[in-house]
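Lay summary. Proteins are chains of building blocks that fold into shapes, and those shapes determine what they do. In this project we predict the shape from the chain. Here is one chain we studied, written as its sequence of building blocks.
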Amino acid sequence: MTNHAAVLTALADPTRRAIFERLARSPGAVGELARELPVSRPAVSQHLKVLKSAGLVTDHAAGTRRVYSVDPAGVAVIRDYFEQFWQQSLARFRAAASQPIQEET
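And here is the predicted shape, written in a compact code that computers can read:
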């Protein structure tokens, strides 16, 4: 079960966020990701483990490699989390906009 706290914690790290953003563009294996980042393959693997644990990425076997991609369910969790704040803000704006304007004397 993915929760917004785990997602936010996982994305708080800049390297993990970079990996996640890279995977949002297209799936990739550890070696491909490591070539694009200033960290080692083992470090990328550890970051992917955290992202997977948070429900943000999935992986599948492709020959001898594991290919990682963004998990839409994990993205939906964080989208829903932020959507509640957007809906609250819109409701407050709607309520404020419907109030009669009071003229100052």
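What the prediction tells us: The chain has five helices and three strands.
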